[in-house]
Each structure stands twice: as C-alpha cells, then as structure tokens.
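debug: dumping io for the single-chain case to check the tokenizer round-trip. Nothing else runs in this session.
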Amino acid sequence: MNRITLLVGICLIFVSCGKDPSGVPDVSFTFRATIFGNPQYSGLSVDGGYVEVPGHGVAGLIIYRKPFDKLVAYDRCSTVNPEKECAVHVTTRFTATDPCSGAIFSLLDGSAQNNIAKKPLKTYIVTESNGQISVSN
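debug: decoded output
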C-alpha cells in the first residue's frame, strides 16, 4: 500500500508542476509583429514601454519592455474571477489594474500587488529577433 501511495504522490507532483498558476484558461495562438519602424509598436522601443494588443489570448495581450531590454507578454485577463474575462489595463509604467475588481499587477513579473488578487497574470513566451517579435503559449 505504501508503494501505491508514493507512486500516486509522485504522479500528482509531476502533473501539478505543469499547471499555469494564473487560473486563466489556455487558448492557443501565435502573434507576430514587426516592431521597429512601426508606429503602432513604438512603445516597445524604450524600457517601461508597452502595447496592449486585442484579439489574442483570452482578453488580449500586454507586451511590456522590462528594464535592460527584455520583452515579456501577459494575458490581459485578470486572475480575479478569470471566467469574467475582465481585461486589465496598464495604469503606470510598472503596473496594470483590473477595472472590475481593483486588483493591481506588476508588469515586471506579473505578480499581484495588493490583497485583491491571489494569482499572477498569465505569461506567454516572447521571442525577439531583428525587429520582429513573436508571442505564443
């Protein structure tokens, strides 16, 4: 019986490690854009710059340039009641706010910044090369 319990415990650890901690559903997509020379994406040319992109992920994307030139992408779907698909908006150079609940999230790492949200924003994979970006899950 102890071997079965141990085996079940190990399986649960491996299954739970792959889960997204945000609670936002997975939606398959790939977003590509040319950012240099494109006024629509000029916000991504400076540290702390961002763009909000509708139509991808669950509630759209926030693509943000962190200090030291690294891009990150978050789903705009708030992790507070994600089934409502309330879209967060960038409110300062470093934060985004959920207008439905008042939750505040850091754009540096997606983490919740007040006691309203318990989970971070859903993150996506970003690649950047020669002025081109690609965001996918």
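debug: round-trip ok. The chain has one domain: 24-136.
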